[in-house]
Backbone:
């Protein structure tokens, strides 16, 4: 399985708008995605009010690529959030079963 950590920093002043998008659009979309075994959405905290994240566990690389395309290393965003996001990062790891 593949652990994918996606982090977003919003543009200043766009925290509330991104929060609405995150809760109303992004989280429901991800929960319906085939091949996504686990999703852990993380909202902003008082000490990092512009940062949001998703920790996702994908069944396999084929499932991940079916969702994002062949270029899974590039963080993709929904066009609706483009004006809200200042930066984003993506990291991938092989999941270690404990």
Residues:
């Amino acid at each position: 399985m593949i652990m994918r950590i996606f982090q977003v920093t919003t543009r200043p002043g766009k925290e509330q708008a991104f929060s609405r998008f995150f809760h109303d659009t992004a989280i429901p979309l991800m929960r319906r995605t085939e091949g996504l075994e686990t999703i852990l959405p993380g909202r902003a905290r008082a000490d990092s009010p512009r940062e949001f994240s998703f920790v996702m566990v994908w069944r396999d690389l084929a499932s991940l690529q079916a969702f994002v395309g062949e270029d899974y290393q590039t963080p993709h965003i929904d066009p609706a959030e483009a004006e809200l996001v200042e930066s984003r990062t993506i990291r991938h790891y092989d999941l270690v079963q404990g």
User: Anything to note?
Assistant: The first strand starts at residue 2 and ends at 10. The beta strands are 2-10, 36-42, 51-58, 85-94. The chain has a mean pLDDT of 93.
